[in-house]
Amino acid sequence: MFDSFFLGGFECSTQRRHDNKRLDLTRSSGHEQHAAQDYAALSGLGLKGARDGLRWYLIEQRPGVYDWSSFLPLLRAAHQSGVRVAWDLCHYGWPDDIDIWRPEFVQRFARFAGQAARLVEQETGEPPIFCPVNEISFWSWAGGNQAAMNPNARGRGQELKRQLVRASLAAIDAVRQETPRARILHAEPAIHVDGGAGSRKVRKSAEAYRVSQFEALDMIAGTQAPELGGRPDCLDVVGVNFYPHNQWYLGGSTIPMGHHAYRPLAAILAEVFARYGRPILITETGAEGSARPAWLHYVVGEVIAARSAGVPVEGICLYPVLDTEGWVDHRICPVGLFSSCDAQGARTVYMPLLEEIEYARSKIITRALMKPPFSVAGPIAGL
């Protein structure tokens, strides 16, 4: 899908927080103003693939009227820099005049997705890569059960998940109607939940929680809740989002890497592939501060192990690739390959992470030359 194994992910969240304040990370990171420099810098370091997003809330402020001025500079900057982008169509945010719980949300989103597909192909001459709805599972939990972000509900997580699946499926159909060769990416958190020394009931609950990570993709594929309209062909590429905090004890603390309860990433990737039989992309991964290179070293080692076992992992996206404002406290989080920018758009490179990328590239290329290409079967496997 991409011309480099490593990708850079531009944080593009646009949700309303629990206090109704809207975030716009594309703007606050400086990427909105300095997209041309950002993409040139990414390409200059050999990262020829990226994740980025459309801000639906800006594009469709009136029903059926699309203002692409917030998107076109990003699209053109990426294309001119030779960076192929997987575009998020809905990264937690939507226009203020839409009620997310009503059928109109699905209909409006599908029309928007179709128009976006037509625009991308017209501008670039290439079929688009779209992630219709980012992290359905997390969004359903945070927005439907915890009231931590829009739609700020409690006890409605399953209802929200089903609605986001409907929207994703409708968007896929609309995109393919406009551009049949479009690629579809679904990005979902990969987690592990352990019952620890708890009772059998606790351990059973932990396992149920762990397995729930597959619900959204199962719905997309039509193997769960088929009344939503899911189909196997709606699964194209499975994106896995994996961070240091993605493993925890049920109701308790994070499981530290190296602990006996910590599940290797390679095993998680193998389970995902066995379940869906689709190519896999690490769509988000990263750590903060000085942990950045060490975390990437771990992830790369696990990806190499998974690929050696026949799991078709097609790339790793550093996410976010820019130091980014925190969702809650607005501090600048040192998480990126590039720093926050000055007034002219200049950013500095975090050299320890770049050195780890260069080391990882040599390992992955060497391993790739030793193995034949992957062959991924068409139908979903393991279900």
Automatic annotation (TrEMBL):
> Which SUPFAM superfamilies does this entry report, sorted A to Z?
(Trans)glycosidases (SSF51445)
Q: Which domain of life is it from?
A: Bacteria
Q: What is this protein called?
A: Beta-glucosidase
